[in-house]
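Q: A reviewer asked whether we had any structural model of the full assembly, not just the individual parts. We don't, so I'm hoping you can provide one. Inputs are below.
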Amino acid sequence: MDRTGTADAIWLMYRRDLLLAFRHWDQVAQPVVFFAMVTTLFPLALSPELGELRQLAGGVLWVAALLAALLGLEFLFRADHADGTLEQILLSGQPLALLAIAKGVAHWTICGLPLVLVSPLLAIGLGVPMEALCTVMLSLALGTGILSALGAIGAALTLGLRRGSMLISLLVLPLAMPALIFGARAIDMAIYGDVARGPLLLLAAMLVLALTLAPVAVAAALRISAE
Amino acid sequence: MNWIWLHKFASPPHAYRLAGQLTPWFGWPAFLLIVTGLYGGLVLAPADYQQGDAFRILYVHAPSAWMSMFIYGTMAVAAAIGLIWRIKLAHGVAAASASVGAWFTLLALATGSIWGKPMWGTWWVWDARLTSELIQLFLYAGLIALRASIEDRDRADRAAAVLAIVGVVNLPIIHYSVYWWNTLHQGATITKLGKPSITGDMLWPLLVMMVGFTLYYGAVLMTRLRAEILRRERDASWLRTELAV
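A: Here is a predicted structure for the entire assembly that you could use as a starting point for your response.
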């Protein structure tokens, strides 16, 4: 019997998660709709003046994206845990941390990437100038990546618990605050015409760190939760 | 080298007795030091040239802030020991520490806020250190909530341990990012190497208070650890003979 190589296993895992997600495309759409709706709340609650909204745009976009990304986290491992796939993954003999990366990247593709893609539209709605849209997308792309990595830890720890979704937010949000700080700062700088390179590089560094360390924690958490 | 003696500490009966014996050894020095520190801070130390007597809340505020970090560190080390060597007692230490740490964090926030009112004119400012202290409180809250929501004790222990370690890796990142984000708080006083920017008269009560608070935590930890052992070992036979019931 030939063994599946690790690279193959990672690819299979990624492909499988994407396939499963697109069979339920309505679930994929939910975070995006939520993102759009939360962003719409701010002009209604604050002011329809584009000039005023522009000052808050960075923060609004980031908070809305953060909450939207949190929504999807609950489903990261839940189905696999419920139908026993997770046990098979644990028993497969493949390095769990690498498979966790695959699942995390798949989750980002399903949940984070759509947010990044619709963000320019919402940003224009908040009065963000065209020149800053690139920074908006880049900062959200890096940020949602960080959140997927950190969120995977929270999702793995709270697997199978009642009221797990509330708990995930409680666990993950404090850890995500540094990303929020630099992400929103980058958008702000871009809106005012500055070069947002500094905060973006810091975000990228955080993403690298999260991608390096989080999978180990996710693997440990999955082993604990799946016992 | 023979490490067998070390294993004795991991055995619940031994730890239960030792914690009981150690409690007064932490408690009384803590009491004496805190009384001395309070006297030194509130009476002997000169009033600040700028802040007057209001600065004296420092003697509760700074040690509380120190404890909020120290306890988190202790908890993370205990959690790591418990996770790596599967020592249940270490998880007990972590479980007993979390809420003490959360209370000290709250105390630091409350005293900071009370101090901020006369100095900055508001109860709360979104200043870097206050905010990172607040985030630390959230981290404690997450840990306590996670532990409380998992019914299986073994799983709760290990899940909380993973979270504590993740939190410890994140703490410096949170700290520095919040620091860059905004700074209004006065710079660090004691950690400045070489020349501390506080006179000796003001400094010694602060140091005494910090040691006193740390020992107080030791005493509380020992008591809470005993309670934790009782809860965890409630069906064990040694406990029945120990308590003679």
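A: Points you may want to mention in the reply: Helices of chain B lie at 4-10, 12-44, 58-85, 88-120, 128-149, 153-181, 200-232, 237-243. The interface with chain A takes residues 83, 135, 138-139, 141-142, 145-146, 149-150, 155, 158-159, 162-163, 165-167, 169-170, 173-174, 177-178, 180-181 of chain B (CB under 8 Å).
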